[in-house]
């Protein structure tokens, strides 16, 4: 389908916050087009002069991914006096859309939506991957997903508004929401993401469940490699979820920083005469791009006809969190309002960071970018398999199966979750009498956390990620949760850490 046949997004102005509605456009922003016109006598904005920019050149090295070879390094050099014609391997490039970002642009005010060539690259990337199905979708560069969420809260929420979250959620999201005095309502999850029946039930019976609590405007989901649970929302739930959100006029924020860290299914090891047998084939590089793309899950963007899905993308997990670069995909109308907020807060994302990421991506091209993701898949699969194999090995060796349950193996991302069956702990009944149901999980969570810390092992507490229900909190008092990660841990530390874990569990439960 060409874009000519597509409709524009719906207007969601009726859902905007008071703050958003009262914020106008920055008047100076509208003048930037004149600044870029060399014929213009531009005396209108306070821009520092180019000759006083001290940086003369940006020179850095990156992997050369054009041909999926990971041992080739390329030099990227961007000089102060470069002009578009001189860029990109000596080829004449007339169009700013397909070139390096000039230093004079990168270091100057302006381009607060993002630099055109980076935006262009990302637009093609998103179109190739998700093929949004309304006409006026757009992209806005920001400082990563944490900032992306914060700005969306400001665009849509007044204090006392309500957001739907998965019942476990990335802790910074919970903090950001509660700092703005916004209510949260958790939707139950299983190993395949949120449970549709719970979502449907709560929305249908809102007054019965939540009384006067405002009806939700937003739902926030982490669809792939959920943080902290590690699970992935399965594709066959997505359309139904979208239809429900449409029925109740709810905006969906799809925070998906682990999308390109998707992995093949993990198979648990078996043990024969106490011999460990790894059931996973070594993950090898995938041959064709189509093969690779076919294995990936869908984005809500691909089913969104209304423009009610706002997708947060981040380079943090692909190029490093220090890039502080990400982007939002959504309808132009919503993005314009985020842009207005950027103008008075962020202004623009770092031009230097954009220059570097853009310099790399333009040399790699779309296929090179895909090659990078293919590589991430291989490496993350190795890390995950090593971690879970070690975990199961130690659980078996320390004979602690009945005290430990491992969440379904992650199909994406960097997190795994372990549940401890605290009700089997020898002190459980006594502590339940002493502390009551409200405090029992907290007690054991702290006990294990402290024991692990004393042995120099850190696993994150499940309570840091728990979204409590404002009206009827139902807590499973028989278990406590621990989140682990295999991303930046050496095999040796991983193995030792999990051995410490198993040893402490064994000591405590016996
Ligand atoms: C779900 C989720 N969103 C956002 C972030 C942070 O992303 P960024 O570095 O782009 O702000 C994280 C990082 O852990 C995350 O797990």
TrEMBL record:
Show where the Aminotransferase class I/classII large domain sits: 104-497
Which keywords does this chain's UniProt record carry?
A: Aminotransferase, Pyridoxal phosphate, Transferase
Read off the Pfam families from this record. Aminotran_1_2
Names of required cofactors: pyridoxal 5'-phosphate
Q: Which domain of life is it from?
A: Eukaryota
Gene Ontology molecular function, alphabetical: 2-aminoadipate transaminase activity; aromatic-amino-acid transaminase activity; pyridoxal phosphate binding
PANTHER family reported in the protein's UniProt record? AMINOTRANSFERASE, AROMATIC_AMINOADIPATE AMINOTRANSFERASE 1
**What family does this belong to?**
Belongs to the class-I pyridoxal-phosphate-dependent aminotransferase family.
Q: What is this protein called?
A: Aromatic/aminoadipate aminotransferase 1
Taxonomic source organism: Hanseniaspora uvarum (Yeast)
Taxon lineage: Eukaryota, Fungi, Dikarya, Ascomycota, Saccharomycotina
């Amino acid at each position: 389908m060409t874009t000519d046949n597509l409709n524009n997004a719906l207007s969601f102005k009726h859902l905007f916050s008071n703050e958003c509605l009262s914020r106008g456009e920055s008047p100076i922003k509208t003048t930037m087009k004149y600044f870029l016109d060399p014929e213009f006598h531009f005396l209108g904005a306070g821009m520092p002069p180019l000759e006083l920019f001290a940086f003369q050149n940006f020179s850095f090295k990156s992997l050369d991914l054009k041909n999926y070879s990971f041992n080739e390094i390329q030099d990227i050099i961007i000089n102060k006096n470069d002009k578009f014609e001189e860029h990109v391997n000596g080829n004449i490039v007339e169009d700013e859309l397909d070139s390096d970002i000039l230093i004079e642009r990168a270091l100057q005010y302006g381009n607060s939506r993002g630099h055109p060539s980076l935006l262009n690259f990302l637009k093609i990337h998103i179109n190739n991957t998700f093929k949004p199905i309304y006409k006026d979708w757009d992209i806005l560069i920001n400082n990563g997903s944490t900032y992306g969420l914060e700005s969306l809260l400001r665009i849509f929420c007044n204090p006392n508004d309500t957001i739907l979250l998965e019942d476990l959620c990335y802790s910074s999201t919970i903090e950001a929401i509660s700092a703005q005095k916004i209510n949260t309502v958790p939707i139950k999850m299983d190993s395949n993401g949120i449970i549709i029946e719970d979502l449907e039930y709560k929305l249908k019976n809102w007054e019965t469940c939540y009384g006067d609590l405002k009806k939700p405007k937003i739902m926030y989901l982490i669809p792939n490699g959920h943080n902290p649970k590690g699970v992935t929302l399965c594709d066959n739930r997505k359309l139904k979820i979208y239809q429900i959100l449409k029925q109740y006029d709810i905006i969906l924020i799809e925070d998906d920083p682990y999308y390109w860290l998707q992995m093949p299914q993990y198979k648990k090891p078996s043990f024969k005469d106490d011999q460990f047998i790894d059931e996973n084939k070594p993950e090898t590089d995938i041959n064709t791009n189509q093969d690779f793309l076919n294995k990936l899950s869908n984005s809500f963007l691909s089913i969104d006809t209304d423009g009610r899905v706002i997708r947060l993308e981040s380079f943090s997990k692909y190029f490093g969190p220090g890039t502080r670069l990400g982007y939002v995909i959504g309808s132009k109308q919503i993005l314009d309002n985020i842009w207005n907020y950027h103008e008075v807060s962020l202004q623009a994302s770092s031009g230097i960071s954009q220059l570097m990421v853009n310099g790399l991506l333009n040399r790699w091209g779309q296929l090179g970018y895909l090659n990078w993701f293919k590589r991430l898949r291989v490496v993350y699969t190795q890390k995950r398999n090593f971690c879970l194999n070690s975990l199961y090995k130690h659980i078996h060796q320390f004979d602690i199966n009945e005290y430990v349950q491992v969440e379904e193996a992650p199909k994406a991302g960097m997190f795994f979750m372990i549940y401890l069956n605290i009700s089997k702990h020898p002190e459980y009944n006594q502590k339940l009498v002493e502390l009551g149901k409200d405090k029992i999980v907290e007690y054991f969570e702290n006990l294990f956390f402290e024991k692990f810390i004393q042995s120099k092992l850190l696993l994150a507490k499940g309570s840091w990620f728990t979204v409590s229900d404002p009206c009827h909190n139902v807590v499973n008092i028989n278990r406590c949760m621990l989140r682990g990660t295999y991303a930046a841990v050496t095999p040796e530390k991983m193995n030792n850490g999990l051995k410490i874990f198993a040893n402490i569990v064994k000591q405590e439960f016996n």
